[in-house]
Design goal:
52% of the residues are buried. It is built from ten helices and 14 strands. The strands form two sheets. The protein has an eight-stranded mixed sheet with strand order 6-14-13-8-9-10-11-7. Strands 2-1-3-4-5-12 form a six-stranded mixed sheet, with helices on both faces. Helix 9 runs parallel beside helix 10. By secondary structure, the protein is of the alpha/beta class.
Length: 310
């Protein structure tokens, strides 16, 4: 697995576009997120439909066409250095096929960050644009707004990526579900989205030779089992080098979740590091996707071979 190209890091004064490819965003949370970005000496601009709500399907931030147009316009704007997602939710799968990937490729590399439902776009960016991305907090996410740790780690990744080239699990997590070391290119995201994306034109073809990042929210243990089993049965996890597990907020008692993870992943014969501290939850770390790294399950670290951004 070859690593994708890395976009350039941000500089003070950079213009960043805030978009809502999935669910609607409460205005007060969006404004709070914009204030944080301005405090970083960034120039945030808000997509036209970031505060919109679909007339019939209230879980969507406007129509599929509106969300795709916002995203396309933001990415192809030469004055924009980064596109940051305001939140996850649901809806990226409905708009990803409406994007003009040739035009986006011609626009050149830039930073893209988001998590949860945005997993679908991360996969498309890797396959269609060959571009490394950031699986990190949403700009208007509740957990991001109230966590200095999440803010500091995202800011460091954006401006000084070499300062967070060694990513250490958030205490008290970071234990080895399966011990060992492994090297590979990072990929992955939200487990249920990875499973539902299988067979689509934008899905990553598989994890062979890679380090897979997995997390989820609000999925009961049997549903996690179902998603992991789907990845196993489809062959998507064949040849994986190692696995890093993040948060499982709202998925039931962790003992039950852990039993599922151990049962489904323990037999792969590769290192598995649990409770690393990314995904859903306060203080989530920013995890680069598409970067070659070394996983050390014993020390609870993921060491990037080069900074996430150029």
């Amino acid at each position: 697995m070859n690593p994708p190209a890395r976009p350039p890091r941000l500089a003070p004064g950079a213009r960043v576009a805030v978009v809502a490819p999935s669910g609607p965003v409460p205005e007060e949370r969006l404004q709070a997120g914009l204030d944080i970005l301005r405090g970083w000496d960034l120039d945030p601009v808000v997509a036209p439909h970031a505060l919109a709500r679909h007339a019939a399907l209230g879980y969507l931030a406007g129509t599929d066409e509106q969300r795709a147009a916002d995203f396309q316009e933001a990415w192809c704007d030469p004055s924009v250095a980064a596109v940051l997602c305001a939140r996850g939710g649901y809806g990226a799968q409905r708009m990803v096929d409406l994007l003009d990937w040739e035009a986006m490729r011609a626009a050149g590399p830039k930073v893209f960050a988001g998590f949860s439902d945005i997993t679908v776009l991360h996969q498309a960016f890797a396959g269609r644009l060959g571009l490394a991305t950031l699986y990190g907090p949403a700009a208007a996410g509740v957990d991001f707004l109230k966590s200095a740790r999440a803010q500091d780690h995202l800011r460091a990744t954006l401006f000084e990526p070499e300062s967070v080239q060694v990513i250490t699990a958030v205490p008290p997590g970071g234990t080895a579900l399966v011990p060992g070391r492994a090297r590979g290119v990072t990929l992955g995201g939200c487990l249920s989205l990875l499973a539902s994306d299988l067979g689509t034109p934008h899905a990553h073809p598989g994890a062979r030779g890679g380090l897979v990042l997995l997390e989820d929210v609000g999925e009961s243990p049997y549903r996690l089992d179902r998603c992991l089993t789907q990845l196993l049965r489809s062959g998507w996890l064949d040849g994986v080098a190692g696995i890093v597990l993040g948060s499982w907020a709202g998925c039931g008692p962790y003992g039950q979740v852990r039993a599922v993870l151990a049962d489904r992943l323990g037999g792969l014969g590769v290192p598995v590091l649990e409770e690393f501290g990314f995904g859903h939850g306060v203080g989530a770390l920013t995890m680069p996707l598409g970067v070659r790294a070394e996983l050390d399950a014993a020390s609870g670290t993921l060491t990037l071979e080069e900074p996430a951004l150029g």
